[in-house]
Amino acid sequence: MSGLTAVPARAGAGSAGGARPAALVLPGGGYGRQADHEAEPVAEWLAALGIHAFVLRYRVAPDRHPAPLQDAKEAMLHIRGGSHGLAVDPQRVGVLGFSAGGHLAATLSTAVATGRERFDVPGAVPDLTVLCYPVVSYTTSVHQGSMDNLLGDAPSSDILAELSAERRVTAATPPAFIWHTADDDAVHVSHSLGYAGALMGTGVPAELHVFPHGRHGLGLAAGEPGPDQWTRLCAAWLARAGWTSPWIPAGRRDQV
After folding, report:
1. What CA–CA distance (Å, rounded) separates 40 from 54?
2. Contact 74, 111 (CB under 8 A)
């Protein structure tokens, strides 16, 4: 596993005491790098909601699949295991991913195998998923850069289908909050539409927000009309799921 950084929940945020939910944050970067603005700032926002956040610097090119997925699964198991010293509720461990990190989050959520038994276990699957302008499919509206970095030249049709998360959704896939912009010119909005549609088609709860305008890679999207609502909407979704306390003032839910 590559670097994993913990950002503890802030005192006074969320539940009054005891074990808290946790989230694994997976920044984007096309499986070639990691975007800093989608990493620690996002973890700080989650910590302000009362959620322990863990930022994973997973392996990227020249490392190939399944290296990033192994890192993500190992991180999930580490978070549930508790050896980090934070009081984490092992029944409430989620994942939040951006762009290619969203692809990693979606493959984690749909239990794509790594081929290593110690990682391919139920505990490596998150309890809920947040996807921000994610790459999802490697068979439709493909994001060529992330596919090349993850799989190299001429990947087989079988592995492309295996890593298209919308094809792997089942009734056991965790609920998801998803957002995208309609005019994203890097990762087509169809990725989010396809994953949300697959969830809804199998009866898994999903909340999807498509904002009319906004460039790719907005992160927390502060000051971006439309997309700047996503943190507030996501915080409300997490509260309805019982992951944050309803009494947290709304103004604190969407502030870092």
Report:
1. 9
2. no
Q: Give the sign of the dihedral formed by CA 6, CA 125, CA 164, CA 62.
A: positive
Task: Write down the pLDDT at residue 166.
Answer: 98
Rg (CA), the chain: 17
What is d(CA 97, CA 53) in angstroms, rounded to the nearest whole number? 12
Give the pLDDT band (50/70/90) at residue 2.
low
Q: What's the rounded Cα separation, in Å, for the pair 14 and 197?
A: 31
pLDDT exceeds cutoff 80 at 83: yes
Give the containing element (helix H, strand E) for 178. Answer: strand 176-181
| Contact call for residues 128 and 76 (beta carbons, < 8 A) | no
Please indicate, yes or no, whether the overall pTM of this predicted structure exceeds 0.90.
yes
Is residue 247 over pLDDT 70? no
**Distance between CA atoms of residues 218 and 232, nearest Å:** 15
Residue pair 207/176 in contact (Cβ under 8 Å)? The answer is: yes
The β-bridge partners of 142 are none
pLDDT tens digits along 222-238: 999 999 999 999 999 99
Tell me the CA distances in angstroms from 101 to 56, 130, 182, 240, one per residue in order: 10, 11, 19, 25
- Can you read off the two tokens belonging to residue 159? 């592995």
The CA distance from 215 to 171, in Å, is 33
Distance of alpha carbon 174 from its chain centroid, rounded?
A: 12
Alpha carbon distance 205, 201 (integer Å): 10
Can you give the pLDDT at residue 17? 61
DSSP 8-state assignment for residue 75: H
